[in-house]
Structures are given as C-alpha cells and as structure tokens.
C-alpha cells in the first residue's frame, strides 16, 4: 500500500527517469520502544529535533542531490501517520516526489526494499540511497556519490570512527586505508575488529543490491529449519497433527525468510564479492535510539544550523540567548529568561520570567514558569514546570554514544524526560528521571522511572 502526493513541477513524469532515487527507512509502531515515553504520542521519525521532525533532516540532505527526484519512506506505520508530514514536505521540497510505502509486516531493513522493488526500479534508476531515519548526521550524500562514481562502485557505506570500547555496539567495518575498499563487515562483533563503524547511510547500484537481497532470501529459504517428522503408521491422528505443525512451521519459516536485514544478511557478503567502499565522515554522527539521545542530536543539528548561518535560529543576546537556540514563532519567551546553548522551544510553548533553559527540548504547548530551571531535559507536550522548580539531567561526554549513567550502582537515564501532560510542582526538584505521561510530581525525585 502507498500514500502519495503527486509531483507537478516536471511535465509528463520526467522525474521518474532520474538516475538516483532515495529510500528512508522509518520502521514501525512495534519498534521504537526505547524511545518511550516520547514514542507513545508521536512516531519517532516525526519527533521534533532542532525544530523539525527527525526525517525532515534526512529530506533536507536528499534535496541537495540534483539527480534525486523520488523519495520513498518505507515502514509499517499506518498510512495516516505520515500524510500531513508529506503534504508539508512536498511544498518545502518541490523538486521531490515523496511516497510512503507501507509494509504488511516488519520485513527488516532489506526485506522492505525487496518487497517494493518494482516501485523503486520504475524508471530504471541506476543508484539508490538508503538512509535509516534514526541517525543524526550531516548526511554527506554528494561526497558518497562522488566516491561511488570515482571507484565505479556497487556500494558505498557511510562510516565514522568511535572510541574502541564503543565500537562493538555497532556494525564494524574493516577497510583498505589506501583504496577505501570494504574488506570485512561484522554487525556488533563479540570482540574488537575495528573502530570504523556503520552510520546507517548507504548508496547502492540497483543492479547489485536487489540480486544480493534475492540471494540472501534464497539462502534463508534453503536452510533447513526443522527435523523431518516421520509419522507413526499406528496413529493417523498424530500424523495429521504432525503435518499441521509442519505446515505451521513452513508458514513461520516463510515469514522469517522475508525478514532480511541489510546489516546482518547483506553487507558482509557484499564485502566479499562486490565493489564495496566506505566514505568516512569527519563530521558529526549520532544514533537516535533512546528518548534521551534526542538531546545530543538536538545539539548537533542546532550547531550545524548555526555554523551554516540558518535564519531559523534566534539571534544571540547577552544574558538572554546563548546560541544556538531555536524558538518557534508561536512560542512566548519572557525577555528576562535565559536560553541556551542547544535549546529548542516548540510551538505555543511559554517560558516565564527569570527561567533558565539549557541543553533541552521544550515541546509544544508546554509551560516553564518563572524562575524555574531546566537542564539536559525534554519537557513533553502540554507539560508544566512550576515556579522555582528544577528539572535536570546529567551532562555526558560529547564523544559518548550512550545517554545512560551509573548512579549508586544502577544504570539510569542521564537525560530527564517528562512525557505528555506531566506537571512538576513549584519548588520541586526532578533529577535523572523518566516520567510517563499524565503524572504530577509534588515531591523531589531522583534516578527513577515514574510510572
């Protein structure tokens, strides 16, 4: 099933024959559990980071590649979820046709591509960008395309360097330092093999990626997944049930064979057999997996917007705005409040006199009352922070790829998160907590999940 807004700026569908297309993998409702409590109210790809939905940042990068005219969002959310976003996006990115393709079940990062291969291959594109929606980076797609053409590649993966102790949490790439060819790829290896990791952004030759997925599906289907049953001649009834169970197993096997993941099932084979290269970015990169990871992503995108001279950001003002800060035009911020750095204030939010907000996201219709302090936190939709209250998380190192910390021997969230319609009383202190929606906090609380 697909949701589509027609593309009018090119006559007779000329855009369909473009040499490059792009896919953004958006996942579905059964995933994103680590993004709770925020994903209880908004699908993760549509959560606002630095004033825009996460997938808007992907589209902004795609729109800068002149040869791309068609973009597909692939996932298994209901079609209605992305309808309004797509309507807005086609006005903002008029050169792009944007379609949502809904999987009938979770098919994996490669299974969804293969399921919709006929739609993707319409117009015979030569290349296909594939972006995971839950990463935050500068998306150097132009540079990846240049490397692709220079090397006559069949695949290019975006890579970055991380600390050695963090590398095994990601897909690890071993490459030739001189040619940049990928020699070996392992998803989340048990022992250290490289600190060059997979950023979740790819460029494939269409003639290479779809046969690779087909081979992986065939390998999965051919692999025996159960012992053959030999029904007893004396018991026809048990024979029937054995056959029934075998049929159920076949159905389950068929479902499993359709769940194909780029990371586990495709990339290591490509390293063995294809012209597969890595473009190593020196720029910023973060995963947006947990709700707390939206805070470092917000900071990175705001800093990037500030460095590129974005007119969307608030102008710095002594003792009021420490750049970079995004304030939605409909928000109301008292001139005696102090904001920044790395703060996003959403639509219709209110920040009172003398309030201090730093390294935080304040979502729409929420209110921070006078003299309150909000640090390293996310204030949920329609939530209230009382006067002289203090809502704070704990800063983590810029190089860290986790937003968890150890407090009193227990792992807790470093970012404090208030879900939708939470209330923090006057003079109450909330530290390193995750608060589920519709909760009222009348006393000080630290290092807890408030349910």
Describe the structure.
This protein has nine helices and 35 strands. The strands form eight sheets. An eight-stranded mixed β-sheet has the order 1-6-5-2-7-12-9-13, with helices on both faces. Helix content is 24%, strand content 29%. The chain has two domains: 20-223 and 256-287, Spore Coat Polysaccharide Biosynthesis Protein SpsA, Chain A (Alpha-Beta Complex), CATH 3.90.550.10; 312-446, Hexapeptide repeat proteins (UDP N-Acetylglucosamine Acyltransferase, domain 1), CATH 2.160.10. Helix 3 crosses helix 8. A hairpin with a 2-residue loop joins strand 27 (404-407) and strand 28. The protein is α/β, with parallel strands linked by helices and 451 residues long.
